[in-house]
Design brief:
six-stranded parallel sheet, alpha/beta, elongated, about 325 residues, Deoxyhypusine Synthase
Length: about 325
C-alpha cells in the first residue's frame, strides 16, 4: 500500500453519453456508395458525399456550398494565384470557370504572367534554376523578358493594367497555345486579371529593357482595378462573395489586405464574405491576411493544405458540378 494519500474518486457527477453534446457523430462518418454501378458513373460530388462531415471534410463542403450560393446570387468569386499554379497545369480549369461566369476576377504575382506567357507562346516554362544560376544564364530568355518588358512599356502609354496588357497582347498575337493562356482568356472573357509586381523578384526585371516607371504604373493600376473587385465582396442581403487564394504565400495576401482596408476606409460595408486559402504549407501571411483578419467580425475563412495538382481540380470540378 502506498504511503501517500490518494484522491477520493467516489461521488463524481456523471452523465450518459446520449445526453452529451459530442463533436463527432455517426451521421458525419464517411459514406460508402451502395450502388455497384456508381463506380463507373461517380461524380466528384458523389465522391464528396462519401467524405466525412468532420474537420477539413466539413470545411471543404461548406466552402463549395458557399461558392455555389454566391454564384447563384451573382456575387463575385475572385481568385488569387501564384506562379506554381500555372506550372502545375491548372489554367484550363480556371479558364473554363471564367467562361462559365463562375470566376469574376483573378489576381497574381509577376511569375503568373511570365509562366502564362511562356506556356502560351512556347508550350513550356520553368527553367532549371540551379544549373542556370551557376553560369549566370538564369532568367536570361530574351524572347520572354524583352517581349514582356516591351508590352508593359507600351501599356503604360496606353493606360492599361499589367495583366490586361499581357492578355491583350496574347489575344492579338498568333501564338501556338492560345487555349492554355489564363491571361489571354481572361481578357477575352472581360474578367479582370491583375498582376502585382514586387520589383526585383521577376526575371524580366534583370534585363536592360525593364522600365521601373512603366512596370510600377501598370501594376499600380492593377491594384486599383483589384481594389474595385474587392469592393463588391460585401453582403448586400443575399450573402457575400468569395475570395480564394491558391498558392501565393506573400504577394496576394498583402495585396488583398491593403485593398480591403482601402475599401473599408471609403465606407464600403464589406461584411459576411468568405475567404479561403489552398496551399501546400501553412504560411503566416495568408493565414492572417486572408483567412483570419478580414473575417474576424463577420464571414468565415478556411485554410486547406494539399498539392495544387490534386486540390484545385477537386475543388473546381466539384464547384462546376454544383452550379451546372
Amino acid at each position: 500500500m502506498s504511503k501517500y494519500k490518494e484522491f477520493d474518486f467516489s461521488g463524481l457527477n456523471k452523465y450518459k453519453v446520449i445526453d452529451r453534446q459530442s463533436s463527432v457523430s455517426v451521421d458525419d462518418f464517411a459514406k460508402v456508395m451502395k450502388d455497384k454501378e456508381s463506380k463507373n458513373k461517380a461524380t466528384i460530388n458523389a465522391f464528396l458525399d462519401c467524405v466525412p462531415d468532420i474537420l477539413k471534410g466539413k470545411d471543404f463542403k461548406e466552402l463549395l456550398d458557399t461558392a455555389a450560393i454566391a454564384y447563384q446570387n451573382k456575387k463575385p468569386i475572385i481568385i488569387g494565384i501564384g506562379g506554381h499554379v500555372i506550372k502545375t497545369g491548372m489554367s484550363p480549369l480556371f479558364i473554363e470557370m471564367m467562361q462559365m461566369g463562375a470566376i469574376q476576377g483573378i489576381c497574381g504575382n509577376g511569375s503568373v504572367s511570365i509562366h502564362d506567357f511562356e506556356i502560351s507562346c512556347f508550350g513550356k516554362t520553368s527553367e532549371n534554376v540551379s544549373d542556370a544560376l551557376e553560369d549566370g544564364t538564369f532568367g536570361m530568355a530574351s524572347d520572354t523578358c524583352d517581349t514582356i518588358n516591351g508590352i508593359i512599356e507600351k501599356a503604360s502609354l496606353q493606360g492599361l493594367g499589367y495583366g490586361e496588357a499581357v492578355g491583350k497582347y496574347l489575344s492579338e498575337t498568333d501564338i501556338p497555345f492560345p487555349e492554355l493562356s489564363l491571361l489571354r482568356n481572361a481578357y477575352q472573357c472581360n474578367v479582370p486579371a491583375t498582376i502585382h509586381i514586387a520589383l526585383g523578384t521577376d526575371i524580366v526585371h534583370q534585363h536592360e529593357t525593364a522600365s521601373g516607371k512603366a512596370i510600377g504604373d501598370c501594376s499600380l493600376r492593377d491594384f486599383k482595378i483589384f481594389t474595385e473587385l474587392v469592393s463588391t465582396l460585401g453582403d448586400t442581403g443575399d450573402g457575400g462573395g468569395v475570395f480564394i487564394s491558391f498558392g501565393s504565400a506573400v504577394i496576394v495576401p498583402e495585396v488583398f489586405l491593403k485593398a480591403l482596408t482601402v475599401c473599408r476606409n471609403k465606407g464600403f460595408k464589406l461584411q459576411n464574405f468568405t475567404t479561403a486559402v489552398f496551399d501546400m504549407n501553412h504560411h503566416y501571411r495568408p493565414l492572417l491576411n486572408i483567412t483570419k483578419r478580414p473575417t474576424q467580425n463577420s464571414g468565415k475563412g478556411y485554410y486547406f493544405i494539399g498539392h495544387h495538382e490534386i486540390m484545385i481540380p477537386l475543388f473546381l470540378l466539384a464547384l462546376r458540378e454544383r452550379i451546372l
